[in-house]
Amino acid sequence: MENSTQTPAFTLPVQISFGHCDPAGIVFYPNYFRWFDRCFHTFLLDRAGGHRKLCGDLGARGIGLMDVGANFPSPALDGDMMELQMTLLDWGRKTLKLGYRGLIGDRTVVEGFELRGLFVERDGRMRAGDMDALRAVLEP
Fold first, then answer.
1. Is the whole-model pTM more than 0.85?
2. pLDDT < 70: residue spans in the chain
3. What pLDDT score was predicted for residue 111?
4. Which of 24, 26, 32, 133 would give a disulfide with 75, using CB separation of 3.0 to 4.6 Å?
């Protein structure tokens, strides 16, 4: 995936345990999507005081998921410590594409992305908002 060469904006350590694994003893794939979301929200907490505060500051209802995907080149197992790296891949006018890469040592176990939008309410309807204000807060 495209995020493997960019400098991570944020890194989240994830201790993999038995409860994260399927009967074959490898991480059950939906957990990666939970960890992507957790990484993003931990990043928001670190950078801007959290999702709720940031949305209040921006007059938004949420920073919601619009698309997500991943591939799993190598298995992660009970007892592994994964470093989940998140990069800010692409800012669109109405979207932010995030890249994720999970590493155990130097071995990649997951590569993925999320496409998120800033949702605002206008005329009684939820709409995609402009990303400029969010970008100003999240980029260093």
1. yes
2. 1-5
3. 98
4. 26
Helices 30-48, 51-58: inter-axial angle, 10-degree rounding: 60
DSSP letter, residue 29: T
- Yes or no: say if 102 and 14 are a contact pair by the CB < 8 Å rule: yes
Length of the chain: 140
Categorise residue 123: left if φ over 0, alpha if ψ from -120 to 50, beta otherwise.
Answer: left
Report the amino acid identity of residue 8: P
Distance CA 40, CA 114 (A): 10
**Per residue in 17-32, pLDDT tens?**
999 999 999 999 999 9
Neighbours of 86 (CB within 10 A): 22
Q: What's the confidence (pLDDT) of residue 2? A: 52
Architecture of domain 2-138: Roll (3.10)
**Structure tokens given for 105:** 């040592």
Residue with tokens 């206008």: 122
For residue 103 the two structure tokens come to 């590493």
Rounded to an integer, what distance in angstroms lies between the CA atom of residue 115 and that of residue 21? Answer: 26
